[in-house]
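subagent[fold] <- orchestrator: predict structure for attached chain, return tokens only, no commentary.
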Amino acid sequence: MNYENILSEHSNGITTITINRPKKLNALNRATIQELHDAFEAADTDGDTKVIIITGSGEKAFVAGADISEFADFNVEEGGDLAAQGHEILFDFVANLSTPVIAAVNGFALGGGLELAMASHFRLASDNAKMGLPEVSLGVIPGYGGTQRLPQLVGKGRAMEMIMTAGMIDANKALSYGLVNHVVPQEELLPLAEKIASKIMRNSSVAIAEAIGAINANYDDGVNGFEVEIEAFGNCFGTEDFVEGTTAFLEKRKADFPGK
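subagent[fold] -> orchestrator:
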């Protein structure tokens, strides 16, 4: 599929999606959000894709925020619709994909950019990365999950400070907060993402999908995550991957998971 605002490349079980609007610091507009949805959906349904990496083009930005010119004149109803559609099309969609998503944060990840990184299953950062949710400086609040996912990742107090001050934190502070898992020089960012992806791909994709669902259930209101885990655990016993994994263990060999 051809895209105007992103690139999508597949190699050795990994689909790398790159937001490609460097002159706009990879800002998210409606067209880019829709293309990202299409690319994530295509990768998730592609049996050859075991891990998805999302990053930004150039050295300055992962995503420097939303394209403010698109919504500066919106009314209350239009603003609500903008957030709701964004959740459905991209941010909640990514968070609930069955294929692991690694965000490789290179440079600025602000507003919707940080929200996209937080919707990913975990995050790596280059040492020049800067992260923040500056929305209150524009008279709005984070609308793509920022007020929910940031406290889950860094704690309520730190999230309150970051959102209220509209300030940025650097990569090392993000690491100390638990917002990112690793910080490396920019030239090592994608190689590290690919290295971690290769480790993920050694394991059962079916079990990983069940694990993602069970972990996410812990954050859903009214859902008992332990019950979801119990059901998901049981589901694994009916898979070919379980048969292969346990057989390989007993035979003292490396498992070759069929992904079924």
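orchestrator: received. Logging for downstream: Strands lie at 6-11, 14-19, 51-56, 61-63, 101-105, 108-110, 122-126, 130-132, 168-170, 182-184. The first helix runs from residue 30 to 45.
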